[in-house]
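Researcher: Let's do a round of design. I'm pasting the structure tokens now; please hold your answer until I've finished.
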């Protein structure tokens, strides 16, 4: 036992023993500069330098645009800009096709290879309708006039529960995944199950406000969003919720992460529901999964 204590004491003595490092002028052999350093202090200094290097690297990644190249750090604004650039490129390509078609038709007319009467379409915008100039008959005019009078004050289109006005809203796909279970009211399955990679970002289907976040024993971490026109979207079995009640989100913004929480979950997936004025609707009628 004394031998163990002696070895321990000897170990601490060795790592705390200080060595002197001197810098000597070669011509005069005068000591210019010196300092004392032990093994323990050298190890501590190296550890502090490594920690400082890690902090600087993390700061550079978080505070500079480099973070956009890391998985999960792509900002919503950048995603929108990418989509807008893709739409602009598609529109430009479409306009080039229209101009090319127009010039080819004009060249054909001027060269005489295309007869004027055979032209049905100069470009894709001005299409030729063969029935456009056919006048309406008397019976047709009477039917149209009678139908317009009967439907003038018909408000059933506004109260029909089978119609859900979406306006100009564009529904985002909440997650990139495969549909494993579809909307079936007979078995009380009021949404679709999307199998996805664990911890993949769950996106808001529409602009809206978070009205509920919490944990349910059966459905795990749940988040609900209130949208315009009476729509509510529900996201279940999440691994992590990124928003709180009252937060305003935009369409396509990350609100949670795909998980496997809740007793009713059999693997990493997202259970997505869409409700309209208190009634469940089939999400596949609004979103192409």
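Researcher: That's everything. Go ahead.
Model: Designed sequence:
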């Amino acid at each position: 036992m004394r031998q163990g204590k002696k070895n321990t004491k000897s170990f601490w003595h060795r790592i705390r023993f200080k060595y002197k490092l001197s810098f000597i002028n070669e011509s005069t052999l005068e000591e210019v500069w010196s300092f004392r350093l032990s093994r323990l202090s050298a190890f501590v200094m190296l550890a502090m330098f490594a920690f400082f290097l890690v902090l600087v690297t993390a700061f550079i990644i978080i505070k500079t645009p480099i973070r956009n190249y890391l998985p999960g750090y792509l900002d919503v604004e950048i995603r929108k800009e990418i989509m807008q650039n893709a739409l602009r490129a598609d529109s430009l390509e479409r306009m080039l096709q229209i101009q090319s078609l127009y010039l080819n038709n004009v060249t054909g007319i001027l060269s005489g290879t295309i007869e004027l009467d055979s032209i049905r379409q100069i470009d894709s915008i001005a299409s030729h309708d063969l029935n456009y100039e056919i006048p309406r008959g008397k019976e047709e005019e009477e039917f149209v006039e009678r139908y317009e009078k009967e439907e003038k004050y018909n408000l059933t289109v506004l109260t029909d529960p089978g119609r859900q006005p979406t306006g100009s809203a564009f529904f985002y796909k909440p997650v990139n995944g495969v549909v494993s279970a579809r909307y079936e009211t007979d078995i009380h399955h009021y949404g679709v199950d999307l199998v996805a990679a664990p911890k993949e970002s769950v996106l808001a289907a529409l602009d809206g406000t978070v009205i509920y976040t919490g944990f349910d024993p059966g459905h795990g971490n749940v988040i609900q969003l209130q949208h315009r026109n009476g729509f509510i979207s529900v996201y279940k079995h999440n691994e992590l919720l990124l928003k709180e009640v009252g937060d305003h989100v935009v369409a396509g913004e990350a609100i949670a992460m795909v998980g496997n929480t809740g007793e009713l979950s059999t693997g990493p997936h997202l259970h997505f529901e869409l409700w309209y004025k208190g009634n469940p609707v089939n999400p596949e009628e609004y979103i192409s999964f």
